[in-house]
Amino acid sequence: MRATVIHAPHDIRVEEVPDPVVQRPTDVVVRVLRACICGSDLWAYKGESARKPGQRIGHEFLGVVEEAGSEVRAFAAGDLVVAPFVWSDGTCDYCAEGLMTSCPEGGFWGSVGSDGGQGEAVRVPFADATLVALPAAAASDERLLTALLSLSDVMGTGHHAAVGAGVRPGSTVAVVGDGAVGLCGVLAAKRLGADRIIAMGRHTSRTDIARTFGATDVVAARGEEAVAAVRELTGGRGAHSVIEAVGTEQSMSTALSIARDGGSIGYVGVPHGSAAGVDLHTMFGRNIALRGGVAPVRAYLPELLPDILNGTIDPSPVFDLTVSLDDVPTGYKAMDSRTALKVLIKP
Fold first, then answer.
1. 137-153 residue pLDDT tens
2. Which CATH number does 2-153+296-346 carry?
3. CA distances from 99 to 130, 278, 300 (A)
4. In Å, what is the CA distance from 146 to each residue of 33, 112, 151, 191, 319?
5. Distance (Å, rounded) from C-alpha 219 to C-alpha 158?
6. Which of 54, 89, 144, 191 could serve as 105's disulfide partner, Cβ 3.0–4.6 Å?
7. How far is CA 90 from CA 69, 117, 130, in A?
8. How far, in Å, are 30, 91, 114 from residue 76 at the CA level?
9. What CATH code is assigned to 158-292?
10. What global pTM score does this model have?
11. What is the pLDDT of residues 219-259, one digit of tens each?
């Protein structure tokens, strides 16, 4: 079969690889219907995150079960499913606590020795615990299928940030970052009842989506100018909740500066560069909480899935470019140059 592999920075290829097969009785093989490129994939593409030459890449996909192991009980051939970006066994303490990303038997798609999501098929370990069933009818609804793909990562990650930031009905929320995760953070904050949502971004095409998702204000600035703008919008106090969806020193420093005393920052931007933006003295003096990390999206799927199915939320607009599997390298270039927000892949 064909799958996306990375050989070096800026060297993404689609190559023939061995077909995935059931290796353990708890495995299934999923034929991929939709996949996508994540902002975190770009760190490997840029050479800022190490990868071995020829390593698979991609961690967001949904598809149809082609084969199931003898101990799989929840799924059978023909079932439409979505996969969170981490597989997990469903039996350990961490899984029971809803932190599937810390499962000792778990792992990330595209890690060494595993299949990546940007291919024609994927072997899924611990299928009963990892996968979530989707209505069969969704396979013929292009918009719905695209919206459901967001549950593999960005919608759940935006929700994780909103939960970490303590978003509640009537609160004021500021979102640092206008990528797909930040935009899903806006959608999550609206869903959780935020009264005012300040989206921070300088790309009109993206902040227009933010407004559609529920943003009441847009701050198109960075650094001290951005901090001053948010402070002015909030009467000098700052936001009750801040979603940090970038992961740089500047973005974290901005998040801390715009948080209200007693507020919370939910951080989900993959950290890169210095962590100097985390000023513990300031956090201590102003009683600011910091929560977040790798989003356990599998834990959020049962909560978010019904709202996508009934139309309460629709994250599909974050996908603004569609490519075939053969054109995945072009998709990486488009996201790297910021001419695309998030690339949808149709194998």
1. 999 999 999 999 999 99
2. 3.90.180.10
3. 12, 24, 10
4. 10, 28, 10, 19, 8
5. 19
6. 89
7. 17, 21, 7
8. 10, 21, 22
9. 3.40.50.720
10. 0.96
11. 999 999 999 999 999 999 999 999 999 998 999 999 999 99
